[in-house]
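Aim 2 progress update. The chain analyzed this quarter is reproduced below.
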Amino acid sequence: MRTGNLLLVGFLGTASLLIAQPSPVQGPQAPEPPPTYEMDKNGEREHIDFSLKVKPISDPNMQFTKFSGKKSLIFYFSAKCPHCQHAFPFIQKVSDSLTAKGFASVAIAIKFNTDEDIHDFVRDFKARMPIFQDDDRSFGENYGTGYVPVIYLVNEKGEFIRYKNFDENETPKMIMKEARTLIAKK
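Predicted structure tokens:
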């Protein structure tokens, strides 16, 4: 009986030492590199096609083509997505700053939101930017990642940087830093 107890204690002691070993991914992680301009298969910068059909929600007469040739911020979202709801106040603040510097801002809701969902989002989050809906999924199929939210910073040529991961502390800073570069290039 005593030998069995000693074996058990020895086994448990060895197991606890193995479990207590640090994993190779402990500690602070290296930050993700900042996003860069999206490139097409030919190595050229991709462009947002502002002629894509997206349905205007906040102003039925507004056309997406109005934003062509302008420095723009685009927020692609779902009105029901908790991550999008969390990100939006930060993006609205960035949008307000950029609008004061001559940028246009627009939000595009995914196809699967109802008009009521989108109107509720606008009301609940006091959205001030024009809202469209990607009702035929043309924007998402061309520029989406399969996840929301996604933020795009677009230059006058339509070339864009896609921010795929939202971090409330870092993403607004990265967007503003890149926007300052675009402003300086007048």
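The two ends are 84 Å apart (CA to CA). The beta strands are 55-56, 72-77, 104-109, 131-133, 150-154, 160-163. These observations will guide the mutagenesis experiments scheduled for the next reporting period.
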